[in-house]
Amino acid sequence: MTDKTLILIKPDGVKKRHIGDIISRFEERGFNILHVRMLTMNSDQASDFYSIHKEKPFFSELIDYITSGPIVQVVLEGNSAIEVVRQMVGATNSLKAASGTIRGDFGLSHTENVIHASDSVDSFEREFNILSNI
Ligand code: CMP
After folding, report:
1. What confidence tens digit (pLDDT) does each residue in 16-68 have?
2. CA dist list (Å): 77 to 15, 86, 109
3. Which pLDDT score, from 0 to 100, does residue 24 have?
4. Would you call 110 a catalytic residue per the annotation?
5. Residue 101 — pLDDT band, cuts 50, 70, 90?
6. How far apart, in whole angstroms, are the C-alpha atoms of residue 111 and residue 92?
7. Which CATH superfamily is domain 2-132 in?
8. Pocket test for ligand 1, best of 92, 101, 119 (most atoms within 8 A of CB)
9. 1, pLDDT greater than 80
């Protein structure tokens, strides 16, 4: 099934100059790039984007991190995009992510984990709508 998903290249991915590497991986895999935009979230926007985590102990660290610099929003389209992109991204904790995945190749932290990818069609729509208002 052809579907769409959203990724964010997070502040550490941008600072470490991995924007091109990350977008290339998705292009090489065969995804179409529908939209690319650089933006910086403020804390209200970030708290809304990550509202499902607001009771978690890492929430304030996450908000400080995601608002610490520019991020890059990319919308990808292709076969089973949500599932395949999540596989390419790897485990949430970069320390545990397999080599060959984006987090496993570019990260060494749980919070600063290089990239976010939507985990369902509902998340994609919700996240895209929030970003469209920024
Ligand atoms: P992401 O996939 O964007 O979704 C929520 C984010 O919270 C996650 O990536 C990490 O950046 C962060 N995160 C999730 N779990 C933890 C944790 N246990 N400790 C620190 N940060 C976390």
Report:
1. 999 999 999 999 999 999 999 999 999 999 999 999 999 999 999 999 999 99
2. 26, 13, 28
3. 98
4. no
5. very high
6. 8
7. Nucleoside diphosphate kinase-like domain (3.30.70.141)
8. 92
9. no
Per-residue b or e along 60-71, where b marks 16 or more CB atoms closer than 10 Å to that residue's CB: eebbebbbeeeb
Residues contacting residue 113 through CB under 8 Å, at least 6 positions apart: 10, 12, 92, 93, 94, 97, 103, 107
Contacts of 91 (CB under 8 A, 6+ apart): 97, 98, 101, 103, 104
**Domain spans, the chain:** 2-132
* Residue that has been written with the tokens 């179409």 in this structure: 32
Q: Whose CA is nearest to atom 22 of ligand 1?
A: 111
- The tokens describing 11, both together, are 């502040």
Among protein residues, the one with the nearest Cα to ligand 1's atom 2 is 116
